[in-house]
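Exam review. A common question shows you a sequence with its structure tokens and asks you to describe the fold in words. Practice with the pair below. Do the first one on your own.
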Amino acid sequence: MALLRPRALATCVVMAALALLPAAGVAEQAAYRPYKPVAVTLAGLVTDKSLDVFRKQLAGIVQRKDRAALAKIVAAKDFFWEGDLGAVFDPKKSGVDNLTAALRLPDADGRGWAALGAFAAETTVARSTTNAEARCAPAQPDYEDADLAELTEATDTDVVDWSYPRAAGLQARATAAASAPAIETLGLYLVRVLGYESKDRSERDRAWIRIATPGGKIGYLPPASLVSPLSDRLCFAKDGNAWRIIGYTGTGD
């Protein structure tokens, strides 16, 4: 089974697939076998205090839903949009026009602003693999495609079923509670996601995550502790001494 390097083009597919996953139970627990984890490397992680300050500024703009202020921190030209499935990107328009189109702003339900706020708060930022100047959040994972192909073949799954921790040492709990006993400590590798402890998709970022551990156990991870390889990404770069938002990777349909 051949797989292409996953891009952030299928976030909607991820959510649709996870919505169909069954609730955990004795029968389900018996159905999962141990699997050989695929190691993930978050290469080129960026720690820059000036970028942190910029992202705090972005968070404030999101809180106010201030499009005029947002326009001031988005690159006026040479803005890129990867994964524009709907062919919405217009190189003749300004960067902020294309960014708001990607995020579907203004939005009645607030999801676009919420997504922008999540990018501002994301703990992993890394050098882009396609743009030398860009620093993108969340960090793009690197792993062996052949190993992922072998893993999905062995478990009868697809890329949408797998995510990775933001850092090694994450503990899977016996139940969806911080006080529950730890059943397995995870490394920096792909983990099989079974579902979320919330039926409301808008609450997923605050819901505990149900997983199958490499040891074959059903476990639970804290909200927002995993990242999908198919996640959308927001990219930043310095324009002189000032940071700007210069690109977006995600779905455009």
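Now try the second one, then compare your answer with the model answer below.
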Amino acid sequence: MLEIKSIQVCYGPAVALWDIDLYVNTGELVCVIGPNAAGKTTLINAVAGLNKVSKGQIKFNGQDLSRTEPHLFCSHGVALVPESRRLFANMTVLENLELGSYIREAKALRSESLEYVLELFPAMRLKLNAAAGSLSGGQQQMVAISRALMARPKILLLDEPSLGLAPSIVLDMFKAIKQINANGISVLLVEQNVSLALDIANRAYVLEEGRIAQEGLAQDMLNSASIQKAYLGIS
């Protein structure tokens, strides 16, 4: 489904990502972990088309999207839930959700998609007419994920969905992400909560200083002594 081949991303003369190879098969949930400033957000924004690649390829369902304009990625089936959610605070929850279904194919199924996300996150049902900015952090993250799902994506990109949320809310969020994947949507997850990310993922990549340092089955990494020491505080 998603195949990244030797991509490099630069900010001016500075290289942020070096020769990244990564793939997500249809129906997989793949996570990317690593320390702060490793390049995780740069990577997921490149996959979403927001960061241009200076070399290499981003292929999705056999199509090379490396030179595709960012606003066209959604029509190819790619949807991003950005870090810090980035909702339209003064618009209602419903208006934010409807913005997610602006492409023609998704707009035709807007009612069906709306009911799906409200079943996934029942707490939103009573908040549809509330300003998005008035919601709690957890509720705003529900809206952000739901807005992306309204686009009817084939792959969902999630950038640090647990950031700033209470532990109990984080657990609910990860259950929802696992359910989204079980419903047939592939997921690429960038996450700071290493144990939870590895617990729900099929496979994982470790990104360090802009390079892939390790990759493998998520369960193997969860049991890896080096991962436990570096990211879980277990010696």
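Model answer, second protein: The mean pLDDT is 95. The chain has two domains: 1-77+153-235, 87-152. Full marks require stating both points clearly.
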